[in-house]
Amino acid sequence: MIDEKTLLSFLHFFQDERMLEKDYIINLMLKTISINKLSDFLVFKGGTALYLFYGLDRFSEDLDFTYTGSADELVRGIDSFIDPAVRDFELSYNIRKEKRNIAVKDSSGVVSGIRSELFVEGP
């Protein structure tokens, strides 16, 4: 993590400090995810991906992924990158883990995904 003075030096790229902090946290989470072997099977998508890759003026607060690997390894894999990320943030942020590894079913009752939510509140 970087110190507050260095972080604030990037403020001119954002509307306010809150947006800067959210962008920073999202980038830290993406870094943590990228060094995990599960990341080889994740496709980053959604508003945050469009914002980061194409500079679209659409700031999203969540990270959306499609998993392309084996379903058996998915739940263990999610925990393997969420837990280190939480440890990295806990010193400075309040972390709430909710809806962790909940099966998402389509209209016919077939599991179509796994949902995990992690809420980070800054200092």
Uncertain runs are: none
Report the structural category.
Answer: alpha+beta
**What's the assembly state of these chains?**
single chain
Series of secondary-structure elements, N-terminal to C-terminal: HHEHEHEE
Strand order of the largest sheet: 1-2
Please give the alpha-carbon distance between the first and last residues: 14 Å
Average of pLDDT? 76
What's the tally of helices?
4
Number of strands: 4
The biggest beta sheet is recorded as: 2 strands, antiparallel
Q: How many domain modules?
A: 1
Proportion of beta-strand residues: 25-35%
What is the helix fraction of residues, given as a range? 40-55%
Write down the overall geometry: globular
Radius of gyration: 16 Å
Write the layout of secondary structure elements.
Blueprint: H1 4-8, H2 17-34, E1 42-45, H3 47-54, E2 64-67, H4 71-89, E3 94-105, E4 111-121
Antiparallel strand pairs: 1-2, 3-4
Pfam family, one: AbiEii
Protein name: Protein containing DUF1814
InterPro entries: AbiEii
Detailed description of the structure:
InterPro entries: AbiEii. This is Protein containing DUF1814. It is built from four helices and four strands. With 123 residues, the protein is an alpha+beta fold. The protein has one domain (13-121). Strands 1-2 form a two-stranded antiparallel ribbon. Strands 3-4 form a two-stranded antiparallel sheet. Strand 3 (94-105) and strand 4 (111-121) form a beta hairpin. Helix 2 packs across helix 4. The protein starts with a helix and ends with a strand. The mean pLDDT is 76.
Can you give me a brief rundown of this structure?
The protein is α+β, with helices and mostly antiparallel strands and 123 residues long. The protein is built from four helices and four strands. Strand 3 and strand 4 (111-121) form a beta hairpin.
